[in-house]
Design goal:
Radius of gyration: 32 Å
Number of helices: 2
Shape: elongated
Structural class: mainly alpha
Helix content: 40-55%
């Protein structure tokens, strides 16, 4: 908030200033209710759990026969 807005707020009569501050407080409460919840961090897998379950053939990087004519 620019400093001139602080000066404007400070120059208001006390009862009006209190109403403005109460209004700001009510807006903050509404905003906090609507704020999305903090995302919970995902649990990471333990390395090596899939060991022996995945097989990559030796010719994995070789061209496929299906694409020979291209």
């Amino acid at each position: 908030m620019p400093q001139d807005q602080y000066i404007q707020l400070d120059s208001l009569p006390e009862e009006v200033r209190k109403k403005v501050l109460d209004f700001i407080a009510s807006l903050m409460v509404q905003w906090e209710r609507k704020a999305p919840p903090e995302p919970t961090p995902k649990k990471r897998m333990i390395a090596g759990l899939a060991e022996g379950k995945v097989f990559v053939p030796d010719d994995f990087n070789e061209p496929l026969d299906d694409f020979k004519e291209y």
